[in-house]
Amino acid sequence: MIIADKKFLAEIDAKADALKEKIMNAKDEIEHTGTVYYFSNSGCDLNDGLSPDTAVQSLERFYSLPLKEGDTVLFERGGLWRGELYVRVKNITIAAYGEGEKPRFYGSLKNYAVPHEWVKTDKPNIWKYVRPFDIDIGHIVCNGKIHCIKKCLGHYGFNNTLDEVKNDLEFWCDRDDRNTLYFCSEQNPGERFFSIEMHRRISFFILRSGQGARLDNLCIKYVGVHGISCGSFNDLHVTNCEIGYIGGGIQYTKGTSDTRLGNGVEIYGLCNDYSVENCYIHDCYDAGVTHQSKSAYDYPLIMENIRYTDNLFERCIYSIEYFCDQPNRDDDMMKHVRMTGNICRYAGGFGWQRPNRVARHIQGGWLNCKRKYPAEDYIVEGNIFDRSIDTLVSISSVKDEHLPIMKGNTYIQYAGKNYGANFVPYDRYLPFDDETEKFIKETKGETDAVVAVVPEYDGMCD
Which of 87, 196, 349, 414 measures 20 to 30 Å from 51, CA to CA? Predict the structure, then answer.
């Protein structure tokens, strides 16, 4: 086993930096079909949107465009749009035009760093936002990178009272009072920070046509549920995007505990021809990318032709998550799945606030879980799995032939943390120790794998 010293880790850093630069500077090279519509912050909603000079402006104007199957919608680089967008047109392209940074799409409705909108309460260091939100705030990010800490029912003994909000950067939404938000800060938050972005409990791009969507060169941030969300869907392609600071919203309350959610890109249900390629996906409460379902259908749950390729994942609880399972059927199947060339780093991040404290780069199984996770022609090749605050990979199925073929991957983990699992029966996690390389290369047959240990925890997964 290799010792991951400063030189070794610097080489991994250089590969990640090069991939990030490639993603962030990707050119607009999509060939557009159908009618092309243009959006610009300097546009006007009275325009027709048919050229950059007659661009429309607001997301609301999207719904009154005469969009047809096969059309394209382009947003100007350097622009910013806040809210959410329902897309019901088949075979649509949503992409960028112009020069500069990728067009930005924020779920946060405004920058809340406005001093007069924060009211001091009679409790020490507790500030109240001046108006109720009427929707759950899943997370708060300050100054573009500072993660706050949400107090949730049942998490670490929290009982949903303001008296329990005591530590700096903790916040709480009082759902009995229209989601009034309380924030613990040493001074007025609007004075302390130059930006405060609220993750409202919405997804940004909600795809509802079920057929055909290409999203390219977009920046999606500060969303309380999913960055890109759809149910059963065929022909979805997400390329050259940055998707970050996603999730934290409450999915449901069961008994005396809240469960939160938040994925960068999610298909929930059947899918065919689904790819996420050359994207930078970071700081997701749950998964960076996922195809999943455990709903009960009266037909097989088939997920096929899935490709996660050349992406950079950082600080997600799961870089990649999948499950293909429904009650009382034995003919569900994932087919032709490729996870190749990805750099998956620092599993953990703000998702470590979750009470079950799990993190890993591939989440495809749980200890002693009876889900089938059936798969054929499933290959995981040429990826870098770089450090996790918990477990590096978690791969399961009920049959050996459903496990992936692993080729040429690099495994980097802290001493004392877990490698995880990739075997049947799936009844334990393997520690990351002197036996890990033998297991990967000899037991699993991945003879070209690189296995490296980081001697001490360095805080990169926080």
Answer: 87
